[in-house]
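The instructor's notes for this session suggest beginning with a concrete chain rather than abstract definitions. Hand out the sequence below and ask the class to guess, before any prediction is shown, which regions might be ordered.
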Amino acid sequence: MQYQDELTERRLQKMSTRQETRLEMSGKIFLLGLLFVLIPVLSFAQQFPSKPINLLIGFAPGGGIDLSIRAVAYGTEKHLGYPFVISNKGGGGGSTALGINSKESPDGYHLFGGSSDGVVYVPHYREVTYTYEDFVPILAFAKGAHVGLMVRADSPWKTLKELVEHARKNPGAVTYGSSGAGMAMHIVMEYIGLKEGIKWTHVPYKGSAESFKDMLGGHITAASLGVHQLIDHVKAGRARVLALWGASRMKSLPDVPTVKEVGYDFVAENPFFIASPKGTPQPIVKKLEEAFHKGMEDPKFRETMAKMEMEIAFMSSEETRRFFEEDYLRVGKVFKDLKITKVKE
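After discussion, reveal the predicted structure:
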């Protein structure tokens, strides 16, 4: 009987040993398989970049977003060893370029540059072919532009309230331009219109420079745009700023109030960021993030930003992703409260 018990115990020990061996072998096979997957990715990341990198800016040339992205890209090139091939595709508040970039190869060679409007505001306003989850943020490098409402200096309106009263007495007569339908600079005007019960007409453009030109030419009444890159026109007496959409006043325009100071509970601040299509390997994202972060120290970049009174502010890839997620929900509530229905195009 004792012999049978010992035999059974030996058999159980052998079975246990065989199971442990199988588990150990399975673990080794899994690790080997993982290495076969990771080694090419890590090797590719180490060699990256090995050619110029495409950077698509979602707005027309000459505006604040365009100028700031070109400046940070210039400062970043020397840290990557290869130049950026920069192109512009304005339209839809950045959504046209975002739609293109979302379908590009996630290899780190196809980047998008723009403001958070395109991923936070625009998808609530119109049908687009992407969501913020279709992109991997590389980083955010600026808090955004000082955006506000401008009119010609020879216009009769000295304040936003005066323009509102004019629109109240002349329904539909006031036209205003912006850099794209669904962007914060558009929505804040619609917010004011709904709060005041007035009707004015929005005219979307591909960038601030174009809407400002038409405003000076008398083709539109006002322009909701980035004030920063047009400050020289204000100082020269060609244009007047009625209000700013951000949380703070501009140092060079201390007398111009924010929209909140005027009495409207709305703040629009949209970080400028760089992103890559979803699926871009994390080692490449990290390498790009580090290079752009170093590029933010470039004197020419800082000079460009200071001239336009833009605040430089770094957010990592992960911090930018969280910002998109949280702000998308916040803005969605604004659209719901304002009962703005999505436009189908």
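Then share the key points. DSSP finds 13 helices and eleven strands in the chain. The CA atoms of residues 103 and 277 lie 7 Å apart.
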